[in-house]
Amino acid sequence: MVHILSGYQTRFGEIWNSSLKNLIQESGFGAIKNSGIDKKDIDNVFIGNMAGGKYTGQEHLGALTTTSLGLSVPSVHCEAACASGAVAFQQAYYKIKSGESRVALVVGAEKMTDVIGDEAVSILMGAGDSETESFIGLPFSGLYALMAKIHMNKFGTTSEQLANVSVINHKHGTNNKLAQFNTEITIRNVLESTMIADPLHLLDCSPLTDGAAAVILTSDDIAKEYDNPIKVKACACFTDTLALYKRESLFKLKSAIKAGENVFKDSGLKTRDIDVLEVHDCFSINEILCLEALGFCKEGRGGRFVEDDEISLDGSIPTNTTGGLKSCGHPVGATGVRQILDVVNQIQGKSINQVKAKNGLCLNIGGSGATAVAHIFGVE
């Protein structure tokens, strides 16, 4: 069994006074301190980052991370678009599970605001199919807008239901001092915000963000020496076609469906056993699609599920309890690790919006659903 001891998250937002290296250092040293592990006991480092070279001019992030933290151990950079952090975690998980490592540090980091907005969006489109999507100027807002339109036409999902995703996530983020936007918004605010790609308004979209998060993973024998370690009960990754138009369905997240099926099978748990959930709300429609893909509601019922407050803190499945990507911000390489840390904090009883939780699930998505990584954590 693999365990998480603890972790650390930097503030998310436009962090003008911190470089990518500074963010990695802060999160890495913070995770080491919070876990109580001795730095010399770390065997491996994994860094999740999508586009450090294009955003900051810095590549070779494995070496940058160990150098920044004063370590001399194997260090690997993992990239899977917005799922980079979760993929880095997955690699650390398998390294420990195989017996090749006893302690691993996982860092997710991205520094996105040192370039102008149009350039930042262009860089993000590297996560799509360059020949059939970004080449013709189709950004992710356009891809997810298409998915939203199909869902609305097929199932009657409304713009108000999409907006409610953002409203609830912002409400969850109001107590989060590390969030990029910790103010409440209303459905009217969302619907009156600028239309980005019909039907998605500005407040349906997650922002460009700087930030980092890190966690410490250990083997069974090490975990026994520490208080309140959290078990990694299952880990699964699945991919679909890179280009949206090539998929069997233009709105179903096949990668998330398969990753979800695998983590539930491997953990022996079902949706009813999950007490807290983190999903990938890069756009409001994607939270609805994730809820459906994981089986927390039936296909086509995600909008009504949100409208009925099932994802609120006192709902049937508290979701994105610190604000999600919409409120926390979305430093793409860091998001998957931040999600994991938030679920771990819930299970350890340390969350800013505490719910009663023994088991939690994270779903991190790359691109328009080309990659999905799911994890289940728990104490029993």
What does this entry look like structurally?
It is a single chain. With 380 residues, this protein is of the alpha/beta class. It folds into two domains: 130 residues, Thiolase/Chalcone synthase (Peroxisomal Thiolase, Chain A, domain 1, 3-Layer(aba) Sandwich), CATH 3.40.47; 212 residues, Peroxisomal Thiolase, Chain A, domain 1 (3-Layer(aba) Sandwich), CATH 3.40.47.10. Helix content is 38%, strand content 18%. It contains 14 helices and eleven strands. The strands form two sheets. It has a nine-stranded mixed β-sheet, with helices on both faces. It has a two-stranded antiparallel ribbon with strand order 5-6. Helix 4 packs across helix 14 and helix 7 crosses helix 11.
Radius of gyration: 19 Å
The helix-and-strand class reads alpha/beta
Beta-strand segment tally: 11
**Portion in helices:** 25-40%
- Strand numbers in spatial order across the main sheet: 3-2-4-7-1-8-11-10-9
Shape, per Cα inertia axes: globular
Q: What fraction strand? A: 15-25%
| Count of helical stretches | 14
Low-pLDDT parts are none
**Overall average residue pLDDT:** 98
> Could you say what the CATH architecture of the largest domain is?
3-Layer(aba) Sandwich
Total of domains: 2
For this structure, what is the CATH homologous superfamily of the largest domain?
Thiolase/Chalcone synthase
What is the CATH first-level class name of the largest domain?
Alpha Beta
Tell me the major beta sheet.
9 strands, mixed
**Would you tell me which CATH topology of the largest domain applies?**
Peroxisomal Thiolase, Chain A, domain 1
